[in-house]
Amino acid sequence: MVSYSYVQEKVNYGYGKCALKIGILTNVYRASNGINPLDPLNNVGQVYLSQNVSWNYMKANKFGNLIWQLVVDRTTLEPYDFLQNEQFTFYVDEMEPIVPTNGIECNRMVSLIRPNQTYSAGNNSYGGFDSTNIIQILQNCPVGILQATGKRNKNDFSLPLDTGEPAYIVYIPALPDVEPRIGDLMDDDRGVRIALTSVEKTSLGFRCLAVSVQV
């Protein structure tokens, strides 16, 4: 009878030996929520890491891909840990048994907020977005953002020379107490604001669709 725990131990050992030879020293961060995950207090150690998009190391990465295969001893890792070195920042996926570990490349630092207005029957005060009444879901959190392909939405003015509003795919780690919702607003380190229009939870974390909104 096959002992999967024994096989997993051997797999981890093999990846660890490879990473020791070809990888670079990488910091590991483990966050209990989405607020400042890379705070030094969340550092739980270091591992050697090498990343690739092809196991024979004969392919370079291409546009539209943030999912890498990680050569790392994951014995001390947990799902959705962050790995950061001078080249990359990744978050690891759920780490399925036996199979290689995936890492999602984080190319942006973001904050995610949720409007927290409440309403009651009868007359109400101004009901638009109130920046003083929000729920902070993420703050200074690494995520992966790609431009979505396909038709762009027209803006509200629809003038002849207007460009369409860009759309995005956003990969968010499934950290404790982090549950993105449609309508949440995300600001990245470029000053771009987007609104989530679709949220899907997968073994790689949350995959969200979003559209650009006016600040």
What does this structure look like?
The chain is mostly beta strands. The chain folds into 2 domains: 102 residues, no CATH class; 105 residues, Thrombin, subunit H (Beta Barrel), CATH 2.40.10. The chain has 1 helix and 12 strands; from the N terminus they run αββββββββββββ. A 6-stranded antiparallel barrel has the order 1-2-3-6-5-4. A hairpin with an 8-residue loop joins strand 5 and strand 6.
Helices, strands, pairings?
Blueprint: H1 4-22, E1 24-29, E2 43-52, E3 67-71, E4 82-84, E5 89-92, E6 101-105, E7 108-115, E8 134-147, E9 167-172, E10 185-188, E11 193-202, E12 205-212
Antiparallel strand pairs: 1-2, 1-4, 2-3, 3-6, 4-5, 5-6, 7-8, 7-10, 8-9, 9-12, 10-11, 11-12
